[in-house]
Design brief:
Elements lengths: L10 H4 L2 E4 L4 E4 H6 L18 H11 L14 E2 L8 E2 L1 H6 L3 E2 L7 E2 L18 E2 L6 E2 L7 E3 L7 E3 H15 L9 H9 L10 H4 L36 E3 L7 E3 L15 H10 L2 H16 L30 E3 L15 E2 L14 H20 L7 E6 L4 H10 L8 E6 L10 H16 L4 E2 L5 E2 L3 H5 L2 H14 L10 H9 L14 H11 L4 H10 L1 H7 L10 H15 L3 H11 L4 H7 L1 H8 L8 H7 L1 E4 L9 H12 L7 H9 L14 E5 L5 E3 L4 E5 L4 H20 L1
Parallel strand pairs: 13-19, 15-16, 19-20, 20-22
Antiparallel strand pairs: 1-2, 3-4, 5-6, 7-8, 9-10, 11-12, 13-14, 17-18, 21-22
């Protein structure tokens, strides 16, 4: 720089460094602007922003004779404007010595002794406060580096922070960060030496700065995207159409990835769902969503093929009982695989009124509907499971240890097909399907009664430090997730509080007194909750002060109404905060195979299988489970009515076998998995002597008999003897 002699290029401090090769001149813009012996005598387009080249050379010659009072070198072009002050200095030297330069009017300069200062009131607090720009502490002292807002009493800034903000915001957007005042604030900052450039804000000058706002968000944000063409693939009017969060619009999902039937269904991201849960408005929104989903069920679905229509049947048919049978398929006899049947030949019929429960409540109907939805979602997750197998050797007498060993083995992967062999069985079945169902049933029963959970019916996580140390809570969550996807039973023992913590986050859940499993703790909370006077409340708190101190709830109580907040804080500590480590570990385990993410996306659906015990088998349930394959005409199927009557006898206790025995005989499982059976159970009537249960195909082959008593005797004899051999 021809004025200060420095080579520094720092636009924030010294202004833009300009070079004019044709005039052999290089200078900092601020050095030129603040020089005392030069004025803008030309137009804006003449010379350098109105500074004529001849005037610049004269100023350089004048400054070359003046020594700097700070660095003692020649070239001091700036002088203090205070009367009788003869100090001269370079612009960079003046900044270093805390001189003040006013970028307004005559561009005055003041030395370190004569610079303007801000007035401080003696009553103002002297402690440090936060700079509202950088958020670091700033001392309330009359220093050069500290500036006070003229419009806000408690707004303090670092000078350097204000200068950087002024350079970025420009004259149109530079204002007080607290009250947004512009005129008064800018006037004071100019007086105190802040340079406010006369241009637009830097963010307004950036080319295409707001281009992103013109784009519609199209990206699938769910944890496990099912689309093979990628998260950004969007195909309208298909299951791969991307829909956005109905509240924020900044998150998206493919319809198939969130099990949505059409784009008309509302979907919200996890962040918005968490905000709803915290605000307490989720229950109202949930009821609206339920009504919308029921309405959506009546319309054609984009993701599923519509079921075949049932042909009309004459009400005067002599075999009218068969019209109310379960799903019956008319087709010529063929190998027992329902997958071979064309949809056009499958005739679906409703269940007999004799077998339906007239007292079945609306709540249970909704529960059944939710479980069917859960089945479909779990089938989507099962797509991840590969044909590669992993074998687990299980000891039924020590189910937990052997399961833990199998899940922790190096070759175990949740995405592999699981085969189970019981090491203490003398005879192993050719197929492992029955063993796998039995293994998951025993495993879920063990977890329900283990020390990892506490409570009577609806269970919460317990606090077991040894289990935390051995990472057993993670393994438990992982086992439940694997069981759901691989065909295990519905756990059904989660409390509503535990489920809501997993879905909405612990911070959005309010526990109840029923969640406290410890009798002594529950009694203490009851005494506080039902205290009828201030003295009795204080006496109770005095007796349990150690417990309250450990819970962080020990506080002075001055009114009887304080007990409500105290009880709430104790419940939050005992049920939620106390088990933070087990909960986080358990939650991570449930993330296996994407189960937790689906839970958070469909809370109502998964609540039906995690918080409610599995539905007890009934004749209606078993009847609806099987698809009957007949020869040619539904009305001429021999034995179908015998099968229906037999199920009714079994349900009413007029048989030596149970409905669970029948299911076990056919499928190898005494329960209906949450994910359903694969393949779906079927029935065929053949000219054979005894019934046959084909567990590979889940197919029950039944004999055609002349009388119902013959049918019943053969069924009971075969099922009872077969299961006795299996159990032995």
């Amino acid at each position: 720089c021809v004025l200060c002699g420095r080579t520094d290029d720092c636009p924030e401090k010294y202004g833009e460094k300009r070079t004019y090769a044709e005039y052999n001149l290089t200078f900092h813009y601020y050095c030129l602007l603040m020089s005392s012996g030069i004025w803008q005598r030309g137009e804006e387009d003449e010379g350098v922003d109105g500074f004529l080249i001849t005037d610049i050379r004269k100023e350089v010659n004048r400054a070359a004779k003046l020594p700097c009072n700070i660095c003692k070198k020649k070239g001091a072009s700036i002088g203090c404007v205070a009367p009788k002050c003869k100090r001269s200095y370079h612009f960079p030297c003046g900044l270093q010595k805390e001189c003040l330069f006013q970028f307004m009017e005559d561009f005055r300069s003041y030395c370190w002794e004569h610079r303007p200062v801000q007035e401080f009131v003696d009553k103002e607090p002297r402690e440090a406060s936060q700079c509202t720009i950088c958020l670091d502490l700033v001392e309330h002292l009359p220093l050069y580096t500290v500036l006070k807002s003229p419009c806000c009493k408690n707004a303090w800034f670092h000078r350097e922070c204000l200068q950087y903000q002024a350079l970025s915001a420009g004259i149109f957007f530079f204002r007080c960060t607290v009250c947004n005042n512009k005129d008064k604030f800018q006037k004071e900052m100019l007086r105190m030496g802040i340079h406010i450039p006369e241009r637009d804000a830097s963010w307004e000058l950036e080319e295409n700065a707001y281009q992103d706002l013109l784009h519609c968000y199209q990206h699938c944000d769910v944890k496990r995207c099912l689309c093979k063409k990628g998260r950004d693939y969007n195909e309208p009017d298909s299951k791969w159409e991307i829909t956005r969060c109905q509240y924020c619009g900044s998150r998206g999902t493919h319809l198939a990835c969130s099990s949505l039937r059409s784009w008309e269904q509302n979907w919200e991201c996890m962040e918005c769902r968490s905000i709803f849960a915290k605000s307490g408005k989720y229950s109202k929104r949930k009821s609206h969503a339920l009504a919308a989903s029921e309405k959506a069920n009546e319309t054609t679905c984009l993701l599923e093929e519509p079921p075949p229509k049932s042909p009309r049947q004459s009400s005067a048919s002599p075999r009218s009982f068969l019209l109310h049978s379960p799903k019956i398929t008319c087709q010529n006899l063929s190998p027992c695989s329902h997958l071979e049947l064309p949809a056009s030949n499958r005739v679906t019929m409703s269940l007999s009124p004799m077998m339906s429960n007239n007292n079945w409540s609306l709540r249970h109907k909704h529960l059944r509907a939710r479980r069917r939805e859960a089945c479909n979602i779990l089938k989507e997750l099962k797509v991840q499971v590969k044909t590669k197998t992993t074998r687990l050797n299980i000891n039924a007498e020590n189910i937990w240890s052997s399961a833990l060993k199998g899940f922790r083995q190096r070759i175990f992967s949740p995405t592999n097909t699981i085969e189970v062999n019981f090491s203490n069985c003398k005879n192993r079945s050719k197929t492992n399907t029955a063993s796998k169902h039995h293994f998951f049933q025993l495993l879920m029963l063990h977890l329900q009664n283990s020390s990892l959970f506490e409570g009577s019916s609806g269970k919460n996580l317990s606090l077991d430090f040894q289990a935390v140390k051995e990472n057993l809570y993670f393994e438990a969550g992982k086992m439940i997730a694997v069981s759901l996807v691989h065909g295990g039973p519905s756990p059904g023992f989660f409390s509503k509080t535990l489920f809501n913590c997993l879905v909405y986050g612990p911070e959005n859940v309010k526990p109840a007194l029923e969640d406290v499993a410890d009798v002594d703790v529950a009694q203490t909370i009851k005494m506080i909750k039902y205290a009828n006077s201030l003295s009795s409340l204080q006496s109770t708190l005095q007796d349990c002060c150690e417990f309250l101190a450990a819970a962080g709830c020990l506080r002075p109580v001055t009114a009887l109404s304080d007990k409500n907040m105290l009880v709430n804080d104790i419940l939050i500590y005992y049920v939620i905060k106390r088990i933070t480590l087990p909960f986080e570990s358990f939650r991570q385990g449930l993330e296996t195979l994407g189960v937790l993410e689906k839970m958070q996306m469909h809370p109502d659906v998964f609540s039906s299988i995690l918080c409610h015990k599995p539905e007890k088998l009934s004749a209606e349930t078993v009847c609806d489970l099987f698809t009957i394959h007949s020869s040619s005409d539904v009305n001429k199927v021999e034995g179908a009515d015998f099968w229906m009557a037999y199920l009714q006898d079994v349900e009413s206790g007029e048989s030596v076998v149970t409905l669970e025995d029948i299911l076990l005989f056919v499928t190898g499982s005494c329960y209906i998995p949450s994910i359903g059976f694969d393949p779906e159970p079927t029935i065929k009537f053949l000219h054979i002597r005894y019934p046959v249960g084909n567990r590979l195909l889940n197919c029950l082959e039944l004999p055609i008999t002349n009388t119902y008593q013959q049918f019943k005797n053969i069924m009971e004899l075969t099922i009872r003897n077969t299961l006795r051999v299996v159990r032995e």
